[in-house]
Amino acid sequence: YDATCQIAQEIAERIQERNRYQRSGESSAKLNVIIRSSLQNLRERIDQLKDLLLRAVSTRQITQLEGDRRQNLVDDLLTRQKQLQASYQNEGPEPDVIRSSLMTGGGKRGVTNPWLMEESEETRGLGFDDLRQQQRRIIEEQDAGLDALSSIISRQKQMGQEIGNELDEQN
């Protein structure tokens, strides 16, 4: 996994270097070949990680919880690989286009920001203090619900113990 992350980082650095070359007018053909090869290598390594993870989970070499954690890591790598592929195919968009696409969710050639989420109706137009107050209210409601659940479980425990005592007495 770490080696695959390192490959992804190197690809990102090479794409950035290629984009600098394109702005300065230098040739970036060599870098394009290296990046394309590295992207293929990254894709193969991610596929290997997926296969190894599937095998480890199916043979119970790792717990399901650990399998889920590792699956999330592999999914993050897949997302990173797709972003790198899109960045490579953009052939070095101008930095202003990239910056503006981060805030607007739009971008060049149909690439959208996967992290952009629509704001919900209940939070739209609220200020920082209002949001904090709403979060506190929600947490208080959850705490009240947990307290009620705790008392119900305590009562069930007490009833179970009384039933157990009655059974012992009857026996």
From TrEMBL:
Domain T-SNARE coiled-coil homology: 136-171
Keywords of this entry: Coiled coil
Residue ranges the record marks as coiled coil: 32-59
Stretch list, region Disordered: 86-115
Superkingdom assignment: Eukaryota
Name of the molecule in the record: STX8 protein
Gene name, Swiss-Prot/TrEMBL: Stx8
